[in-house]
Write a structure and sequence with these properties.
The protein is α/β, with parallel strands linked by helices. The protein is 19% helix and 28% strand. The chain is built from 6 helices and 11 strands. Strands 1, 2, 3, 4, 8, 9, 10 and 11 form an 8-stranded mixed beta sheet that branches. Strands 5-7-6 form a 3-stranded antiparallel beta sheet. The chain is globular. The relative contact order is 0.19.
Length: 232
């Protein structure tokens, strides 16, 4: 059994340098790799290209990297909760590529599976398709989308073992699983780390073959983006 465990977030991020392309799992603020993001802020790496469903909020998630002007380009599908993101985009301080959400997920999954590209009907006839190859299948037009190429993928799971097998919980399954194995190095941080063999094989969402480094995270805030409660 190959042990993928590293003993700290700093060890997990060894090899990170300026100008890299990185994937960040999670959906909104659910299931984001909080420890990895905080360490990237401390490292001060810059000129990053970040692939993520969104850019967090002003003072949490990828918003922390935006505050420090460490991100050069954001590749995302939703940007509505981050005022600093909006400001940098409108002032041309930040390069932004907006992608339909399903296409974003599939470009991750294609990289994970080793497919260089795929055809999708999403975006045909819009700005999304400009400059891209299109083709007709069975009377319907499709756009050719390329798989992502990333240096690191940072994901967060509920539970994992020392061999890198992962179990996700709830909304964290939206993008985290697709990003595992979709980059040159996948780093998984988990709330609970157990010895190999303790996880029920039938409950594992991602096998360890897709993970290169795993560590036990700490001090998770797990913020809620929009808290809605009933009136008393």
């Amino acid at each position: 059994m190959i042990i993928k465990t590293v003993h700290s977030v700093s060890e997990a991020l060894e090899g990170v340098t300026d100008s890299m392309t990185m994937m960040f799992g999670g959906f909104g603020l659910s299931g984001i790799p909080e420890n990895a993001i905080s360490e990237l802020v401390k490292l001060g790496v810059k000129e990053l290209t970040c692939i993520s469903n969104n850019a967090g909020v002003d003072d949490f998630g990828l918003g922390l990297l935006l505050q420090k002007k460490q991100i050069k380009k954001m590749i995302s599908s939703y940007v509505g909760e981050n005022a600093e993101f909006e400001r940098q985009m409108l002032s041309n301080e930040l390069d932004v590529e907006l992608i339909p959400q399903g296409t974003l997920a599939e470009r991750c999954r294609a990289a994970q599976a080793g497919f260089p590209a795929f055809y999708t009907p999403a975006g045909y006839g819009t700005e999304v398709a400009e400059g891209k190859e299109t083709r007709e299948f069975n009377g319907k037009m499709y756009v050719l989308e390329e798989a992502f190429k990333a240096d690191f993928a940072f994901v967060k799971a509920w539970k994992g073992d020392t061999a890198g097998n992962l179990i996700f919980k709830g909304t964290a399954r939206n993008f985290n699983p697709n990003m595992c194995g979709a980059a040159r190095i996948t780093v998984a941080e988990v709330e609970e780390l157990v010895p190999a063999g303790e996880l029920d094989p039938n409950q594992i969402h991602i096998p360890g073959i897709f993970v290169q480094r795993i560590f036990k995270g700490s001090a998770y805030e797990k913020r809620i983006e929009q808290l809605t409660v009933r009136k008393r």
